[in-house]
Design brief:
This protein has 149 residues and is α+β, with helices and mostly antiparallel strands. The chain is 42% helix and 11% strand. Helix 2 crosses helix 5. The protein is globular, with a radius of gyration of 15 Å.
Length: 149
């Protein structure tokens, strides 16, 4: 976990993010989406941003699936991402047959906070780092200290 925290800290130098977890963002267009991208193109951006994450951050991800959904169940646009599962630091017996943890990115919410594709990539990147950090047991308080919440 120390390596992951260091990766998150190194990424702070590159980017800062405001909000709280689950990853939220106060700036979205109340009437809809700011950037238009179909689901397939959006998923390609997510894969691209996953590929850009440091190896020591993603190498330990075991039994985790990344999912893109349009919106959270409540239909709001203020939730950008969500980690569903049991953090590594909280697992006592975990093994064969466990359902995978999920990291969900909400496409419409992320599109709504971005003014252009570059900003969208940044928001996807930050959301991935934030939710992966939860997998490793880094809580919102620590993410806030690091500038990722």
């Amino acid at each position: 976990m120390v390596g992951i925290a260091q990766s998150v800290e190194r990424l702070v130098v590159v980017q800062e993010v405001a909000g709280s977890s689950p990853v939220t963002h106060p700036k979205y267009l109340p009437n809809g989406v700011a950037v238009h991208l179909d689901a397939e193109a959006f998923e390609r951006l997510v894969v691209d941003e996953l590929d850009r994450l440091p190896d020591d951050m993603v190498d330990g991800l075991d039994n985790v699936v990344f999912v893109v959904e349009d919106r959270p169940e409540d239909g709001s646009l203020d939730l950008l991402g969500l980690y569903e599962g049991t953090a590594l630091t909280e697992r006592d017996r975990y093994g064969f047959g466990e359902m995978p943890d999920r990291i969900v990115l909400y496409r419409e919410a992320l599109l709504a906070v971005a003014d252009d594709e570059e900003q969208l990539r940044d928001e996807i990147h930050v959301t991935l780092v934030h939710e992966i950090a939860h997998f490793y047991g880094i809580d919102d308080d620590r993410l806030h200290e690091l500038g990722w919440a």
